[in-house]
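FAQ: What does the model actually see?

It sees only this:
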Amino acid sequence: MFKYDISENTYLKLLDLNDVDELFTLTDRSRETLREWLPFVDDVRTVEDTEKFVRNAMHQYANNNGIQAGIYYEGKLAGVIGYHQVNWQHRWTSIGYWLGNDFVGKGLVTNSMKAFIDYAFSYLKLNRIEVRVAVGNIRSRTIPKVLGFNEEGRLRDAEWLYDHHVDQVVYGLTAAEWKKLKSTNENTIVL
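And it is asked to produce this:
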């Protein structure tokens, strides 16, 4: 079972069936905000929809193809962060994340990203991480920038959001870049 402590009051844990009700409630309470940038929200109508996602996440982990972890803050499920999949041949992955409305602005995603980056490079021995974010999603675009990712380009009409396409910005970070960032910024890159 994957569990990663971030601080005294924050940790990441592989989603499991015990999280289904709380995850559905979190998604449902944040539906309007999440829907602006995340294409899956309209597909989550019932607890059973969330259970299907969690079961798929558990299979993904069991098949060594990524992790979907709950972000827990003060004992409550605050959001989700995950490796979409792992390309073992080329040693890279991409990361996605979201938070419920009540947990925004606490540094939870930034700190969760630091942990996921470090885990990918140190434990999984990957060489590259990618983050793709809709051009207009300024809050989510800030996170990879703060963590030292390089803006690598723009993918036109890359994502379908309910009734329109949006462009995505691609951010990339290599293991060598992360190692250098950690060694030169020990006061700001803290795990």
